[in-house]
């Protein structure tokens, strides 16, 4: 089974395997887990096992995400369409609006596709990523097809948190929580995927077994540099060096998205220190204070406060760490 490629999460794999083997898989499955835990990967594996129980090239392509896509343009309700992918039996929907919000045109295009096209012998799968980003309008459009789906259609939804999913959607799904693996298991898995062993060990500790986050960080030069900046910032926190922090953060004053991304990694490094990981430069009470300061700064940036002000205030707090 493709789902066997998912590290850990034994309960999820066992439950889904039983449902697939008995062909009693519910028509709507919700996989819940914060970014980097592999909910999207797990959803594609389940879809591949449902559509192609014998595996093969189509199953591999689906796991890679090479399926049809529901797209639309913001502000144009009738702009929804399906972009054809390698795997015709699966449709993916990822929010394309501001902040990754779903566009109702994407949902209506998907709905029209599965109702108006003939099913193959394998059935159809619909992958809906981050459904916590659905507004009421797009959720209502989805409910119309989830309540009475065509025969053979499986809906696989992912979300960062169960609380963020609208109750009307949540109540129509069977939910599974994604769990992180241990940092050691994460490092072993990522090393098998071609990540340098030293980098895999470091990132697995910093990101607490979030395999997707580790792979993303290890495979992208810009992201690796960002992690190094976060580690440098953590060293400044440990030394209560407000000046060093101010100099580093000054480079992000005009980059709201870049500042938010750096703060997220700084938060991860501080959290690792609070857990007692020796790979974090900041430990104990200083890590707790750094974590709180990072959270506050991230919230203020998301609230549209001027990044220069936010980062200046953050740097000043380093004296008290």
TrEMBL record:
InterPro entries: DNA_Rep/Repair_Clamp_Loader, P-loop_NTPase. Gene3D superfamilies: P-loop containing nucleotide triphosphate hydrolases. Signal peptide: none annotated. Pfam families: DNA_pol3_delta2 (PF13177). It comes from the Bacteria. GO terms for biological process: DNA-templated DNA replication. This is DNA polymerase III subunit delta. It comes from Faecalibacterium hattorii.
